[in-house]
């Protein structure tokens, strides 16, 4: 539910395809967990503005009708993060696939991915039976692990999303902060691989808390 992360996803996909020796792991920082933010007209304009920026930079499609909006919908990113936690435990090699399914469902199809039933449908697409998914999704253990993931992200010093970093012998090195297209990402990844010296480009759009920056 972070629009700049959605914009960044094609670059990450290419990175996985072209740098198979790099073991990429998703850490759900949460972006806006437990938020009570309603999508009223003002917030819808806010989202549309940033979605246009992400589209212009990344080419990613957005359905601006936002069919997920309802009287009960809140822009709470905890449920989708919790769903990803379930998949990482049940099918760890499908975590990026499931993340892509959630992004497509939300931004392209306008589905409410704060809803457990919707998330269970997406999990079923990669072979997880709905009752199995829902049992894990609603468990207190998974809720705790999801919150621990948010805390771990803060411990790593992540201040906005997306952030790509490495942890080597306990040392944290930032590869890139904010959105990067693949060409830009390739430059900094190659530099890191060749010299272990990482520049810190920070001019890309990112999301933090309840806000996004262009």
From TrEMBL:
It comes from the Bacteria. It holds the Pfam family DSBA. Residues 1-185 form the DSBA-like thioredoxin domain. This is DsbA family protein. The lineage of its organism: Bacteria, Pseudomonadati, Bacteroidota, Sphingobacteriia, Sphingobacteriales.
